Every structure is written in structure tokens, then in C-alpha cells.
Task: inverse folding
């Protein structure tokens, strides 16, 4: 089980786990629930650069198409091909089905929300 209090969060409903200078990024269970059944995931290419707050991918569900925003600026080191191959895995385990790993400036993560702030954003549903 993932320690949700150890993660950081964005107002675009993404979670970030930092290890050294590598940020692992996924969408929250709240986002997965609101999206409904995820049927397609489009992620940025390994080696590409992403900028915090800008669209870097797409998540489609049976209900809607959602944009994936980069929570931090950096270089894409790895994408989770298992999620691309089986998008529904996001619904089954939002905190286990990470999307991308980004090399970042570790201090930038401090600007993201903690679990309590994210719970306030989602009306306590997080």
C-alpha cells in the first residue's frame, strides 16, 4: 500500500513521488473515479522535455477526454508502457499505475500540495 501522505499532489489531480531527482507521476484515485473507465492513455516520449503546468499527454475514458499536465519541469526518463497497453489499470490501482518518470529539480516538488491540502481541494474526497 502506498503511503499517500508521503506523496505530493497537483490541482490537476496528479500525484508525485520523489526519489532523488526522479519524480514518479500518476493520477489520483479521485481523478480516476471522476474519469470513469479509462480506455486510452497517451504519454510523452522518453527523452522529451516537459514544462510544469503544460499539457504533456492525454487520458481518455468512456465519459471524457482529459489532458495530462506536467506537474514539474524536466526530462521524461521513462513511461509506463503497461498502462499504455492496459489503460484500465489506472482505475484498478491509481497509485500503483504510475504514468511517467521525470528528472526534476527536487526543490520544485516543495511547491506542490501535501495530502491534507489535496483533500481540501477535493472536498475531502481524496
Result:
Amino acid at each position: 500500500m502506498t503511503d499517500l501522505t508521503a506523496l505530493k499532489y497537483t490541482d490537476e489531480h496528479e500525484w508525485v513521488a520523489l526519489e532523488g531527482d526522479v519524480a514518479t507521476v500518476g493520477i489520483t484515485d479521485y481523478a480516476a473515479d471522476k474519469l470513469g473507465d479509462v480506455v486510452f492513455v497517451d504519454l510523452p516520449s522518453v527523452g522529451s522535455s516537459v514544462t510544469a503546468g503544460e499539457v504533456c499527454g492525454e487520458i481518455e475514458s468512456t465519459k471524457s477526454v482529459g489532458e495530462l499536465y506536467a506537474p514539474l519541469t524536466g526530462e521524461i526518463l521513462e513511461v509506463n508502457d503497461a498502462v499504455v497497453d492496459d489503460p484500465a489499470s489506472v482505475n484498478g490501482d491509481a497509485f500503483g499505475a504510475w504514468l511517467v518518470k521525470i528528472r526534476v529539480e527536487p526543490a520544485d516538488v516543495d511547491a506542490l500540495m501535501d495530502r491534507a491540502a489535496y483533500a481540501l481541494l477535493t472536498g475531502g474526497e481524496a
Notes: The domain at 7-112 is CATH 2.40.50.100 (OB fold (Dihydrolipoamide Acetyltransferase, E2P)). The beta strands are 8-9, 14-19, 22-27, 38-42, 49-50, 55-61, 65-69, 74-79, 100-103.
